[in-house]
Write a structure and sequence with these properties.
CATH superfamily of the largest domain: Aldolase class I
Mean pLDDT: 90
Bound molecules: flavin mononucleotide
Order of helices and strands: HHEHEHHEHEHHEHEHEHEHHHHHHH
Number of domains: 2
Radius of gyration: 23 Å
Distance between the termini: 55 Å
Helix content: 40-55%
Structural class: alpha/beta
Number of helices: 18
Low-confidence stretches: 22-40
Number of strands: 8
Shape: globular
CATH architecture of the largest domain: Alpha-Beta Barrel
Strand order of the largest sheet: 1-2-3-4-5-6-7-8
Largest sheet: 8 strands, parallel, barrel
């Protein structure tokens, strides 16, 4: 074998060496990213469900920034799906995959029906909201107040799992009101894991059900990332994803040393270009990182299509309902303000011309654009 190698030309040896390097790289990638087939690594990075923010236009925009990051819908209540306009709540664009539907509800039968609809619509995951502290949601007896009833959540999860073949996951807090003990969230996760849930998204702070607004509930209760780390130690076979206050690649790297995935909410929304690095850095994708202007370019056909549907008589959104999610794209660059101003200028938006995206980009100082 070695004598054979000596007799090869320099070019042939180089080709073999390159082949071996590629094989080693793919072995590395298989072990790093596809070690456990199924759910693991798919949700390594995700964008949080956010009411009024992560609608379908926002998700398409995020998808043009990152191919692999897992996306979540806004919360949709079981009532809205069972008694309301299903298409209005569930329609999305094919390019959004992988995309998860977040449900709000607490009746196992209703949740099973809603989950089934989500699966039929083609969603990749059903997520149950056990973290929202708003008064409205509490009146419906779901969201964060469900953390006080782990057995009910387990019943809900079981009913949904029986109804669908896609993953059923739970997003929750680490405690409610004055409950500070780690045992509370450990028992919550343990009870629901026993019903077959394999993925938990842990917003690592308490929900205060009385006295704090939803916004304050995302800022005031202290973050306790160590609770999520302990969950991973106590439930090593369960996928644990951390959420809450994470803003930089360095923070993401640190969490991924302990946990299976990281979910970003506000930072992904306000500073979306942070996600341009995700595919290469966390999913091993070798495609070149898209520039901001390429992302704008990629959005134009989508904007055109949405506006054309609206013009064609279908009930459709205005340009603003797409551009409002894009205002943060140039954050950190000189001229970002000009970009934001142009994309939110009522007169320009009224013209409903997708070329506005080009114009806003062109209006920035040349170096930045
Ligand atoms: C405007 C807004 C709306 C939100 N709506 C939802 C929701 O529908 N469902 C949910 O589980 N969490 C919701 N959240 C909470 C986020 O999913 C996330 O848990 C929270 O913002 C903490 O993550 P972050 O610090 O990365 O933003 C919302 C957050 C914001 C800012």
């Amino acid at each position: 074998m070695s004598t054979g190698l000596y007799s090869l030309s320099f070019d042939a040896k180089l080709r073999i060496l390159r082949f071996q390097l590629l094989a080693m790289r793919s072995m590395y990638r298989d072990s790093e990213f596809r070690m456990k087939p199924g759910s693991y690594k798919l949700r390594r990075l995700s964008v949080a469900p956010m009411m009024d923010w992560t609608d379908r236009h926002c998700r398409v925009f995020h998808r043009h920034i990152t191919r692999h990051t897992w996306l979540y819908t806004e919360m949709v209540t079981t009532g809205a799906l069972i008694y309301g306009d299903v298409a209005r709540h569930l329609d999305y664009s094919d390019e959004e995959h992988p995309v998860a539907l977040q449900l709000g509800g607490s009746e196992p039968v209703d949740l099973a029906k809603a989950a089934k609809l989500g699966e039929q619509w083609g969603y990749d995951e059903i997520n149950l909201n056990c973290g929202c502290p708003s008064e409205r949601v509490q009146k419906g007896a779901f969201g964060a107040c469900l953390m006080a009833e782990p057995q009910l959540v387990a019943d809900c999860v079981k009913a949904m799992r029986d109804a669908v073949d896609i993953d059923v996951t739970v997003k929750h807090r680490i405690g409610i009101d004055s409950v500070e003990s780690y045992d509370f969230v450990r028992d919550f996760v343990g009870t629901i894991a026993a019903a077959g849930c394999k993925t938990f998204i842990v917003h690592a702070r308490n929900a205060i059900l009385k006295g704090l607004s939803p916004k304050e509930n995302r800022e005031v209760p202290p973050l306790k990332y160590d609770y999520a780390y302990r969950l991973k130690k106590d439930f090593p076979d369960i996928e644990i994803i951390i959420n809450g206050g994470i803003r930089t690649l360095a923070e993401i790297d640190e969490h991924l040393r302990h946990l299976d995935g990281v979910m970003l909410g506000r930072e992904a929304y306000h500073n979306p270009y942070l996600m341009a690095e995700f595919d290469a850095r966390y999913f091993g994708d070798e495609a070149p990182v898209r520039s901001r202007s390429e992302i704008l370019e990629a959005m134009i056909p989508y904007v055109r299509k949405v506006l054309a549907d609206a013009a064609g008589g279908k009930p459709g959104p205005k340009l603003n309902s797409i551009t409002r999610h894009m205002l943060g794209l140039m954050n950190g660059l000189p001229g970002a303000r000009i970009f934001r101003q142009m994309l939110s200028d009522p007169a320009r938006l009224a013209a409903a011309d997708p070329e506005l995206l080009h114009e806003a980009c062109a209006a920035m100082p040349r170096r930045a654009a």
